Amino acid sequence: MLAIIGGSGLTQLASLDVSRREVVRTPYGEPSGALLFGRVCACPVVFLARHGYGHTIPPHRVNYRANIWALKSVGADRIVSVASVGGICTDFEPGSLVLPHQIIDYTWGRRNTFHEGMDEQVVHIDFTEPYDPHLRAHVLAAAREAGEPLVDGAVYAATQGPRLETAAEIDRLERDGAH
């Protein structure tokens, strides 16, 4: 099943015909909100608003592990996550839809793994290709079929939030290859 995580600009999915709502408890605490199940066209989908349904959870307080665990526990095997972002690449028009192929994670202090050692084995996750190439191909094909312009490939820079970056930080992001 496809999971869609909505960001700041997408706290609900208008095309989702909701059939049920489920609150999922996780070993990592509460997810950002109830999971909404339904269909978009003929595709079964589960939707979650990353910042809560009232947009009340700032980025540094989102319980990412609980969100992912909750989605996986109900059968999601693919995730499309939508985010409102700033861009530093002048090749992209404001409002462009971009499908990244790489990520640089500048966040800090967040619990970002399910494998913390302690009572369990340490696991090293290969993150060389962070975005699933098959899912990316499906998204690109769907955009083409819908006639929706989509930029294929960019480096997404995940920053801490909720504050925006300084001019010096943006210069660094650009030097690092972020778009």
Folded structure, characterized:
- This protein has 179 residues and is of the alpha/beta class.
- The protein folds into 2 domains: 1-84, no CATH class; 85-179, Rossmann fold (3-Layer(aba) Sandwich), CATH 3.40.50.1580.
- The chain has helices at residues 64-73, 133-146, 167-175, and strands at residues 2-6, 17-22, 35-40, 43-49, 78-81, 98-99, 102-105, 151-152, 155-158.
- The protein contains 3 helices and 9 strands, in the order E-E-E-E-H-E-E-E-H-E-E-H.
- The longest helix is centred in the C-terminal third of the chain and has 14 residues, at 133-146.
The proportion of residues forming helix, as a percent range, comes to 10-25%
Q: Indicate the structural class.
A: alpha/beta
Q: Roughly how many Å is the radius of gyration? A: 17 Å
CATH superfamily of the largest domain: Nucleoside phosphorylase domain
Strand order of the largest sheet: 2-3-4-1-5
The largest pleated sheet is described as: 5 strands, mixed
Which residues form runs of ≥5 with pLDDT under 50?
A: none
Distance separating the two termini: 30 Å
Number of discrete domains: 2
**Shape annotation:** globular
* CATH architecture group name of the largest domain: 3-Layer(aba) Sandwich
How large is the share of residues in beta strands? 15-25%
**CATH topology call of the largest domain:** Rossmann fold
Q: What is the count of DSSP helices, taking H or I runs of 4+ residues?
A: 3
Number of strands: 9
What do the pLDDT scores average to? 92
Q: Can you identify the CATH class of the largest domain?
A: Alpha Beta
Q: In sequence order, what are the helices and strands, one letter per element?
A: EEEEHEEEHEEH
